[in-house]
């Protein structure tokens, strides 16, 4: 079992920045991919960015050039630096970890981009 806890969400104005963190605990060996997903009100959950154990990253087109995903294996943590935020970035952001055939999710953290 892997436990994931997100932090860092909040209210930010358009054009602002916010940084999310995900702390992993439990049986964290062989986690080969971690990622951020988000779900806006009335919409399906969507991929934001992923990072593998080899530090290979993948981003949704909507966030390329604005968001940066990173991972600190020593701290069992993953981060998402979000810049130039837009109102359409408003969503609950979820941390995800893939280990063998299992996937784990955090409880989510709300990001609101508004004046």
Summarize the helices and strands and which ones pair or pack.
Elements: E1 2-7, E2 10-12, E3 18-26, E4 31-39, E5 46-52, E6 57-59, E7 67-72, E8 77-82, E9 91-99, E10 102-105, E11 109-113
Q: Can you give a write-up of this model?
A:
The structure is a single chain. The chain is mostly beta strands and 115 residues long. The radius of gyration is 13 Å and the shape is globular. It has no helices and eleven strands. The model has no long low-confidence stretch (mean pLDDT 95). Strands 2, 4, 5, 6, 9, 10 and 11 form a seven-stranded mixed beta sheet that branches. It has a four-stranded antiparallel beta sheet with strand order 1-3-8-7, with no helix packed on it. 30% of the residues are buried. Helix content is 0%, strand content 58%. It starts with a strand and ends with a strand.
State which percent range the strand residues make up. Answer: over 45%
Order of helices and strands: EEEEEEEEEEE
Number of helices: 0
What is the oligomer described by this structure?
single chain
Low-confidence residue ranges: none
Computed Rg: 13 Å
Question: Would you kindly provide a brief summary of this structure?
Answer:
The protein is mainly β and 115 residues long. It contains no helices and eleven strands.
Q: Characteristics of this structure?
A:
globular, 115 residues, mainly beta, 0% helix, 4-stranded antiparallel β-sheet
């Amino acid at each position: 079992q892997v436990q994931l806890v997100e932090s860092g969400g909040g209210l930010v104005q358009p054009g602002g920045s916010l940084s999310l963190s995900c702390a992993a605990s439990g049986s964290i060996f062989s986690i080969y991919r971690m990622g951020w997903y988000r779900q806006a009100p009335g919409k399906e959950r969507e991929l934001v960015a992923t990072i593998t154990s080899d530090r290979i990253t993948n981003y949704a087109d909507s966030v390329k050039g604005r968001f940066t995903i990173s991972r600190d294996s020593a701290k069992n943590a993953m981060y998402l630096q979000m810049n130039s935020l837009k109102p359409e970035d408003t969503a609950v952001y979820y941390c995800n970890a893939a280990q063998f055939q299992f996937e784990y999710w955090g409880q989510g953290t709300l990001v609101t981009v508004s004046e």
